[in-house]
Amino acid sequence: GDSVTQMEGPVTLSEEAFLTINCTYTATGYPSLFWYVQYPGEGLQLLLKATKADDKGSNKGFEATYRKETTSFHLEKGSVQVSDSAVYFCALGGNYGGSQGNLIFGKGTKLSVKP
Amino acid sequence: DGGITQSPKYLFRKEGQNVTLSCEQNLNHDAMYWYRQDPGQGLRLIYYSQIVNDFQKGDIAEGYSVSREKKESFPLTVTSAQKNPTAFYLCASSIPSNRGNYGYTFGSGTRLTVV
To answer: Measuring CA to CA, which residue among B110, B72, B64, B100 is closest to residue A101?
Structure first.
């Protein structure tokens, strides 16, 4: 079945460092891909998404490119801030009706940014 | 503003009690979901509903029950049969994916503690 694998954390970086969180997927068909962020004690918020191959999602300085050839959707940011400390989840979901549209989540990667 | 509201934010349950967690959305979304999150863990799907008066079990439905009598509401009951209910519970909603997958909107969560 469909699945998502993301790098295990925790990831600890200094402020202004470059961030990469790896995410790879296995899916039939052509799913949409998502990154969600969860701040401590809160629900998940959609950070960015991409709906087809070669699409680049971006938001708040974060970017991820939908790479069909490598089945990847790695999250990057050029210069992290302390306020980026959170747990990041990669997810995929089908573009058809019913349960195929349900999102499948990775296990999450905790990011800590030190001043 | 449209959104999804979970209440209460914190809930304490005695051993052997049933408790109900509320989830209400005014986004006009058809689909709703309940997830459980344990410390340092990813999300596990409890139940989901694609349409009013219909719902399906997720991966960890034992000890939980739901109802979907209204489009806006998807309450979760944690029964006494759930042996380890202490966790963070997240509700989410989405539009049907056959219109393209836009991902989920999450509530801010309910933290349930057994005392």
So the answer is: B100
Chain-chain contact of A95 with B98 (C-beta, under 8 angstroms): yes
pLDDT over 90 (residue B22): yes
Average pLDDT over residues A58-79: 97
pLDDT band at A9 (very low <50, low <70, confident <90, very high): confident
Using a CB–CB cutoff of 8 Å, tell me whether B90 touches chain A.
Answer: yes
Q: Tell me how long chain B is.
A: 115
Question: Among B102, B104, B109, B50, which Cα is nearest to B76's?
Answer: B109
The A-side interface with B (CB below 8 A) comprises: 31-32, 34, 36, 41-46, 49, 51, 89, 91, 93-103, 105-108, 110
First to last CA, chain A: 41
Q: Which residue in A95, A99, A110 is closest to B101 by CB distance?
A: A95
**B96: chain A residues, CB-CB within 8 Å:** 97, 101
Asked if B33's CB is within 8 angstroms of A108's CB, the reply is no
pLDDT in tens, A11-41: 999 999 999 999 999 998 889 999 999 999 9
d(CA A48, CA A54): 14
The beta-carbon neighbor of B42 closest among A34, A102, A108 is A108
pLDDT tens digit string along A82-96?
A: 999 999 999 999 877
